[in-house]
Amino acid sequence: xTLRTRLAVIYAAIFSVLLGGLSAVSYRVLARQLDADATAxxxxxxxxxxxxxxxxxxxxxxxSDPNDPDQAAFIQEATxxxxxxxxxxxxLVVQSDAIEPLGLQFTPAEVLAFRDQxxxxxxxxxxxxxxxxxxxVSAAGDLYLLQVAVSLNPVDRALNAFLDxxxxxxxxxxxxxxxxxxxxxxxxxxxxxxxxxxxxxIDVSNLQQRLPVRGAGDELDEVATAFNDTLARLERAVREMxxxxxxxxxELRTPLAALRGEIExxxxxxxPADEESRHLASQLEEIDRLKQMIAQLLTLARAEAGDIxxxxxxxxLGALTASLVDQLEPVAQAKSIDLRLELGxxxxxxxxxxxxxxxxxxxxxxxxKFTPEGxxxxxxxxxxxxxxxxxxxxxxxxxxxDAQPHIFEPFFRGDPSRSAGAEGAGLGLSLVKxxxxxxxxxxxxxxxxxKGSTFTILLPLH
Length: 462
Fold this sequence. Notes:
This protein is of the alpha+beta class. The chain has three domains: 3-157, Beta-Lactamase (2-Layer Sandwich); 219-304, Signal transduction histidine kinase, dimerisation/phosphotransfer (DHp) domain (Helix Hairpins, Orthogonal Bundle); 313-460, Histidine kinase-like ATPase, C-terminal domain (Heat Shock Protein 90, 2-Layer Sandwich). 52% of the residues lie in helices and 20% in strands. A five-stranded antiparallel sheet has the order 4-3-7-6-5, with helices on both faces. A five-stranded mixed sheet has the order 9-11-12-14-13, with helices on one face. Helix 1 crosses helix 2 and helix 6 (219-268) packs antiparallel against helix 7 (275-304). The two termini are 45 Å apart.
């Protein structure tokens, strides 16, 4: 899971908890408010009705001014659901037409219980919930129980409608929040993505580059500053290592030259067929190999340090490659290797002819070196769109998949058991990669152990 996805999920989880909690609290507050409003209205209707009740010999009437619309409206609402019991006998005195079908007729024992504890009661009927008030009215020496009811159906409908709305709004809000969160997280990570892109562009060849610092003074600027400090230390360390390698190579040249001269002098004093002469000749070969490795090391160190200039002139890769193949033909014949050349039109690039010659030479020489006797090495030069392509294929020992990412590293050698007979110090492909990079090209490798390798160079056409 990416950082963007993790942050979006965390944001959505926090938002869902907050939204769920807010919805639950809102529902609870609304329920309490609607309940309190229903209770207040019921108490208001009950208390107001007390002022209009009149009793005469056990009969109840309501005294009001029919010409007053406010009184008429109040009396109509208060007497919609009401009934009066004799609090002493429990007998029903009067009952409204609307309360009769609700089944709220009580026995004398229940009436006496209401008289002793006059409070509000919620009763569920076939027509919904009702809230019933109980209050005592004293008139002409008699005690009466007044019951006024209001319907709680409007409260229940409002709560159900609010709950239905939450069931739709909450999931939609969560989806919108997740999408918006992912978008906002992506927007917030843009500076980090830019830092990552700038970091990918830095390698050993351009350690002098630095990550951009926005000047915001935030955590990303701190990361960029810390990384730049690390790059500065790494640049100094690499520069010191290159200077050490160059100095060491220079220092080794003199003793090797002196040692070679002494061995040659010793050879002059001995018979060529002598056993010790053969040992001395073998030592000369090893010294020459060391000198070649030192020369390559110096060249690579100077190239990586930027001390070698690369010319920019038109170079015909086809003619250059054909000349090199002719020169290497005797080497291939000595190993019974079939060396082939295929030219597909003119492929001219802008570059340094000497370095490009070394590029092709190293690739073809490696192909011959790692191909067993009787194998085949094919060299092809062609055009493809805006690129000139040099392709070197062989039927040699191939490269193991785990070794392919490292073949352009200096001094890297593959499995020793597979390349035991191959000469070289592991610097040729490093130089090849440097030449390709300096010519704004790309190099690709396809290889299978035991089946051979194919190196493909793509260079911009002139």
